[in-house]
Every structure is written in C-alpha cells, then in structure tokens.
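Hey team,

Filing this mostly as a record. A colleague (T.K.) asked me to run one chain through the structure pipeline before their review meeting, and I want the input and output archived in the tracker in case anyone asks later how it was produced. No errors, nothing strange. Just documentation.

Input sequence:
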Amino acid sequence: MLHKTKGIVLRTVKYGETSIIVAIFTELFGLQSYLVNGVRTSIPKGGLKTVFFQPSAILDLIVYHNELKNLDRIKEYRWDHVYKNIFFDVVTHSVALFMIELLQKCLKQPEANADLYHFVEDALIHLDESSDTVKANFPLYFALHLAGFFGLRITDNYSRQKTFLDLQEGFFSAEKPSHLDFLEPPYSGLISQLLRVMHPGELPEVPLNKEKRRVLLQACLDFFALHMAGFGTMKTLPVLRTILDDSSL
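Output structure:
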C-alpha cells in the first residue's frame, strides 16, 4: 500500500551495482529501510540521484509499506527542505552527522513517533540557519533534549545546595556521589543552563568555550551509555572534536 510521508535519511549502503539500501526515519512509520534501485548511475544534466540520500537529508516520499516486510521500496522522492549549509559547510556538516549518528543509536524499533520526528527535523533546519556560536553549542542542545524522547531526560533540580550532577541517577544532588559518573561545578551548572534552553537561538546565552564543550559533550554521551544498552562509541565524535577545536568558535 502506498503512503505519503516525510523522512530524514540516516544511512545509505551500496547494494549491487546501481542500487542502495537506505535507512530513513519517517514521520509516519519511524525507522524504516528501503531498497532504491538504479540511483548510482549518472543521469543527463542531473548528476547522481544518490545526492538525495545523504545523511540528514529531509525528503518528501511516497513509499510502499508492509508491516510484515523489513525492506520496502520508495516510489517517489524529492526534497522537502533544501539546506543552505549542511552539505557545504564543514562545521555544520560535522554537527549534523553527529546528530544523525546519535539518533541512529537511540532508534531501536520501527515505531512511529511524530513528536520525535518533528523535533529532529526542526533541529536540523535550525542548525542549517544558525550562527557559528549556536552551531558550536548545538550538539549539547540536541543530545540533552533528544534524551527526553527516550525517557532519559535529566531532572533539572540544580540549586545552590544541589550542585553535583549524578549521571547514573539523572538528577542533581547535594552530596558527591560514591561513583565516578558525575559532574561538579562549574560543569554541572552549565548542564542545568542548557536544560533550560528551549530554542537553539538561546544557546549563545550559555557561556561555553572549547574545553567546556568537550567535557560536557562527553558527559552527555556517558549518560546515554549508562542508560541505553549497546550504545557503544560515537564514530563521529573525534571528527566533530577536531573540527570544533580547529575552528575559531
């Protein structure tokens, strides 16, 4: 049966000589895999059709959907949103790839989640249009808010008395935890500030530099690893660190 849906491309794998298998986070059906034939051949005046299936691309799709199949097909596809920077600017592209990998690690089942889809789509569009300072802080904003969609949101109960962020428990405490999975001031206070950011445009208000971003982002990923089975390591993290460290942000 045919359905019209939007989708965000997560990953593409070559299949045969001219085809690909593409993982897409769809608005209607959640995580889905599709076989797309004949896209790895040149087309007159059009380059390669694989350009549509770059990670983070937002597409309008008409797809076949069968609950009993693990691999369906796409009947039609076109751009839903055309980026200005994500595919062309190295910093923006690196942040987007980090966001996509983190999302992939969290998506375990092909379950529809329109709220999550809209959050990710909105985040990618805002990233594409953001200032340099916002881009540098965007991985933290995305990671902290993405966690909430999977029941992992950190409780923002930070206060003058409760300054230790317990990453195992997901809240701030007055006493230093007996384990090593925690943050203390000033880093814990910065996490509290980031949790209160409801729109990417507010990110410049959080006073961060390269060293603070590095510590905080590692803590966020440690938080995911503590609470999500099989989380593993982020392949895009070393690249993102290098890009941000080499930039003037």
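Quick notes for T.K.: The two ends are 48 Å apart (CA to CA). The longest helix spans residues 210-227.
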